[in-house]
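BUG-183 | component: ligand-complex export | severity: low

The export step for coenzyme A jobs runs without errors, but we want the raw record kept on the ticket for reference. Input record follows.
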Amino acid sequence: MHPVTRSSTRLGLRELALTDVEAVHAIYGDPVATQHLSFEPRNREQVEEIVARSVVAAAETPRTEYALAVVEQERGELIGFGRLALDPHQQRGATMGFALHPQAWGRGYGVETVRLLLGFGFNDLGLHRIWGARAPLNVASERTMAAAGMVEEGVIREHVMKGGGWRDSVVHGILDREFFPHS
Ligand SMILES: CC(C)(COP(=O)(O)OP(=O)(O)OC[C@H]1O[C@@H](n2cnc3c(N)ncnc32)[C@H](O)[C@@H]1OP(=O)(O)O)[C@@H](O)C(=O)NCCC(=O)NCCS
């Protein structure tokens, strides 16, 4: 599916463009925003590569990766990054990732972003299951995924190498019948 567009009251999802590098770098290059993510802050060149790869992946058939810009509708500015990647070994399953610029935190945008991604995955892609993995200390992500209806499913032990050591991940997941409880 290309191009993807979806919107909620305050936010929109759209395809990433090469002109988004600076705004994505403001998030992926920020030590606070990436503190609990699986990687160290990215430099500008790395972000250029990520965005370029995402633009190429968006045009592939079949498409397995949806790296999307989260845009504040009122100002039209990119304030975040959301991603769904189809699971290679599970039919109709996908992993989800999301990150917002720290200046956008604390206004309910995190939950709105996750709901947009879930709505896209279940409605438009017809997925059965969507899951995300967070760092054990990432309370903001825990509450955000819980508020969007994602259930804590368990721990992947020593999942991520970060800061010179292994780190566990906590998995949150949601099924289509939980997202559409009355259908
Ligand atoms: C996770 C993230 C998207 C949350 O964004 P946000 O816009 O601040 O979240 P919201 O305002 O929608 O709040 C959602 C919930 O999280 C809680 N929350 C947000 N930040 C918190 C924090 N630092 N500590 C504790 N709880 C927090 C809110 O109180 C709310 O909980 P509630 O529904 O129980 O009241 C944002 O912190 C972020 O981008 N972090 C860096 C990237 C990241 O960690 N991504 C997740 C990868 S798994």
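Assignee comment: Attached the raw record above. The pocket of coenzyme A is lined by residues 33, 36-37, 98-100, 105-111, 132, 134, 138-141, 143-144, 147 (CB under 6 Å).
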